[in-house]
Amino acid sequence: MKWHHPHKYHRRPRRQWRWLGKAVPYLILILMTATVTWVVSPHLPSPTEVFRTVDNASVDASLKAAAYIEKVAGIGEPSSPEQRWYDEEVVKELYQVTNDARREQGLPLFERDPLLESLAQEHAKDMCDRRSCDHYRFNIRAERASQYDVFAENCVYISGYYDAPSLFLQWELSPLHWGNIIDRSLTHIGIGVYGGYAVQDFGG
What we know:
Blueprint: H1 18-40, H2 47-73, H3 88-104, E1 111-112, H4 114-130, H5 138-144, E2 151-157, H6 164-172, H7 175-181, E3 188-194, E4 197-203
Parallel strand pairs: 1-3
Antiparallel strand pairs: 2-4, 3-4
């Protein structure tokens, strides 16, 4: 008779550090990555800085290209330093050519109003500062000229060289602007010029 000894399960002793051998290569890789990151990353630009640099470079290139085109075409900056500011001679000539146009139409000449001139000059400077030719805050100027029943305004901008005839021509070629100049109900005028922006403010 053969005896079959019952099978016994002998538990092998636990190898608690067995995983360490497999983990060592990964630990080394992690340490190397951390070291490289710690040493090199302070000297690398952030993604935001990279995009900002690229964007600034693109803007600079665009501005240089635009400046070159304007230089070749003769447009952009005023032709003389004094034309960056108030040009009294141009204003005086604009009064002259405006009243010449009224005379040719058989209309009474405009009377020059210091208040309207102040409003026109302030608006011309504001447009130049904002680089926008518009009627911004028109209602405020109309309220300040409340002694008039009617208040009207013409605006124009010419880039580069300008003089009174070239500014007035833009108004003359526009039916709406020309309509203000020959409007019989408008009797007073103020004109302002600043850096290529010109304004006529009318009262009647």
